[in-house]
Design a protein that fits this description.
The protein has a single domain (7-280), classed as Beta Barrel (Hypothetical Protein Pfu-838710-001), CATH 2.40.320. The chain has helices spanning 23-41, 70-73, 100-103, 148-154, 157-161, 233-248, 261-268, 273-280, and strands spanning 7-13, 47-66, 76-83, 89-97, 112-120, 128-139, 171-173, 178-191, 196-207, 217-224. The chain has eight helices and ten strands. The two termini are 34 Å apart. It is α+β, with helices and mostly antiparallel strands. The chain is 25% helix and 36% strand. A nine-stranded mixed β-barrel has the order 1-5-6-4-3-2-8-9-10.
């Protein structure tokens, strides 16, 4: 059975040094970015509304993997999010792959599942597509994520897809814990009938234990979705053109040379691509 792409999300890294400051200062800078972005896309999209002026989420992010990076080397990401205000935890297992049919061949049915298309850009690849299949579950404040078997209990499909899986292997936090702050409120319309908006967000990552006013990464994203995967050529073209404007016209804001947020954390954790090659040839 073919999974439907229920969401298409476009992501680009911004110049993080432009967003140094406290919450009021980054809200001001977010507003400045939104004004430039809105003016640049005004003649492409149907309508632009709102502003990037609302802090909607504040949480702690942790990525987990084995010492051999078993998950990441096999295109999996294991991520925990913990709400800063109430302490609630959720864990997400995500599989990402450029081939849609490889990505969708997972059993992701334990929690809230999502099959989506992630589009990102950098200086080498102006339009890179990854299909992402994820499963998010709530976990208790005391539940441990110490070994691969802890993950396999939450996601039994791992034992089939990563065979043989060393259940006793320990898993660790990759890099360091991250404090995430999300600003939303802006949107632009890409379909008339039925009306469909693309929701925009700025995602700020800070090293939890260090200077909270200096982000290690700032990402701008916009996404739209349809549960029936009813994406027309016109709406896709509008989104593509908006993405092109980010890359080619808003160069004072965009950073095409940075790693993605996740790749950056793994690099800090000591990961190297050559390690996966050696591991797969053992």
């Amino acid at each position: 059975m073919s999974e439907k792409v229920v969401s298409r999300e476009y992501k680009v890294l911004l110049q993080k040094d432009l967003f140094i400051g406290n919450e009021q200062e980054i809200l001001k800078k977010s507003h400045d970015f939104w004004q430039d972005f809105s003016q640049a896309i005004n003649n492409i999209v149907i309508n632009v509304n709102g502003d990037l002026d609302e802090i909607t989420d504040q949480r702690i992010i942790r990525f987990y993997d084995s010492n051999n990076y078993t998950l990441y080397c096999n295109n999996y990401i294991l991520r925990e999010r913990q709400d800063i205000n109430n302490g609630e935890r959720e864990v997400t297992l995500k599989f990402r792959h450029p081939d849609r049919y490889i990505s969708q061949d997972r059993t992701m049915n334990r929690g809230e599942t999502k099959f989506e298309e992630d589009i990102k850009t950098d200086i080498k690849t102006p339009f890179e597509v990854l299909y992402s299949f994820s499963d998010t579950q709530k976990i208790s404040t005391t539940e441990k994520l110490d070994k691969i078997q802890d993950t396999a209990k939450l996601y039994p499909d791992l034992q089939d897809k990563l065979s043989p899986l060393q259940l006793e292997d320990e898993i660790k936090i990759i890099g360091f814990s991250i404090r995430e702050l999300v600003i939303k409120g802006g949107k632009f319309q890409i379909r008339k009938d039925p009306k469909l908006n693309s929701q925009c967000a700025l995602i700020f990552w800070y090293e939890k234990e260090k200077n909270e006013d200096k982000p290690i990464a700032v990402e701008f994203s916009f996404k739209y979705g349809d549960e029936n995967e009813n994406y027309t050529r016109k709406m896709a073209q509008r989104a593509y053109d908006v993405f092109q404007i980010l890359e080619k016209q808003l160069t004072d804001w965009v950073d095409l040379e940075s790693d993605t947020k996740t790749a950056y954390i793994y690099k800090l954790g000591g990961f190297k691509k050559t390690y996966c090659h050696r591991l797969n040839n053992v």
